[in-house]
Amino acid sequence: MDMTNRRKPVLELHNATHRFGTVIAVDNVSITAEQGEFLTILGESGSGKTTLLRIVSGLETPSELGTLRIAGEDVSKTPASDRDCTTVFQHFALFPHMTVGENVGYGLKVRGVALGDRDQRSREVLDLVRLGDKFDRRIHQLSGGERQRVALARALVTRPAILLLDEPLGALDEKLRVDMQVELLELHKKLGMAFIYITHSQEEALTMSDRVILMRRGRIVQEGAPRDLFDRPESRFAAEFMGVENAISGTLEETIGDTTIARIGVHRVRGFWSGPNAALPSQPVCICVRAERIRLGVGGEEEPNRVACRPGATIYKGKYLDQILDTDIGPLNVRIWDRSVDLESVTHLWWREDDCVIVPDDARGESIP
Q1: pTM of the complete model
Q2: How confident is the model over 14-52, as pLDDT tens digits?
Q3: Quick check: 167 and 181 in contact, CB under 8 A?
Q4: Whether pLDDT at 242 is above 90
Q5: How far apart are CA 268 and CA 255, in angstroms?
Q6: Can you list the domains of the chain with their CATH numbers?
Q7: Packing angle, helices 174-191 and 144-156, rounded to 10
Q8: Pick from 181, 193, 160: which is nearest to 36 by CA?
Q9: Do the beta carbons of residue 140 and residue 96 sit within 8 Å?
Q10: Cα–Cα distance between 273 and 265 in angstroms, integer?
Q11: What is the DSSP string of 47-83?
């Protein structure tokens, strides 16, 4: 999505807070989504992402709310059934006693649409999800992927302004989940409506999204394009959640131009600062390097961020090996694609400056945004 050519938001949610007793599930959160945007809300269990989606859908009444508009209409007091959005859940909640066509058309039936019209619209949307020949089938006759597409069709048949997806692929096996990611992307492209997708999988977020909102403890930690969260995390939590294997505690020493220098024991490590605020000398930092960006060295070559190492445990991952190397700054994970590498001859490892992200170390007392 071209974020420089912004359109009017189809969702505007401002200053939402929700409490369950003394627990704050959503803490003064504001989000927007544009027409045609694929927005992913990402986070660990208990981060507040599903509660936030339920507030948007009307299934949860927030404890405090500034504004909530869908397609320009104030829906803060509108019941869920009258909001211009529909939800696809992880557990499809299809009616086993109904046919596929009856399941898809149920929302239209509730809205008083005549039988002929709702059958026609149900068939149209089943064609869209490639289930046009399953109109008269029973739910138990369908595979898991087909049931998922029925649930999608049921949500789409009412032609909502926003499609809400609450971990919809969580109940599928890995191969089917990957296939459904592709199908969802194709469907989103055809329909041009806003998709708001909830997941705890950083892989799904990176693959499918125009924009990602990362949540933790009811708050937004970071948001931006998938590449921003992957390559420029703003905190230790964001880095580790987005899959950084090597996160090493250190102390910020100085910043010279675009280069940030941190100290880990006797080692001075050079990287780039990615924190949300200016770097401060002597502050606790986390040095983040992805396993696939660490290089192996032999002999006396001069390389940046060089650390002596010794082979440790090997983790077989099929297509590659994750090799743990023992160093005096702690064990580091290195991804090895070439099985012919002689680890016994490796004397050191190193990484480039622009492959090293330095962020505030929120695990050592930094405030969580």
Answers
A1: 0.90
A2: 999 999 999 999 999 999 999 999 999 999 999 999 999
A3: no
A4: yes
A5: 12
A6: 9-231 (3.40.50.300), 236-364 (no CATH)
A7: 20
A8: 193
A9: yes
A10: 19
A11: SSHHHHHHHHHTSS--SB-SEEEETTEE-TTS-GGGS
- Location of structure tokens 């401060």: 280
The residues that bridge with 311 in the sheet, in sequence order, are 325
Q: What is the pLDDT of residues 262-319, one digit of tens each?
A: 999 889 999 999 999 999 999 999 999 999 999 998 877 778 899 999 888 988 888 8
- The tokens describing 357, both together, are 């992200």
CA distances from 145 to 37, 141, 165, 175, 312 (A): 24, 12, 15, 10, 42
User: Bridge partners of 19?
Assistant: 24
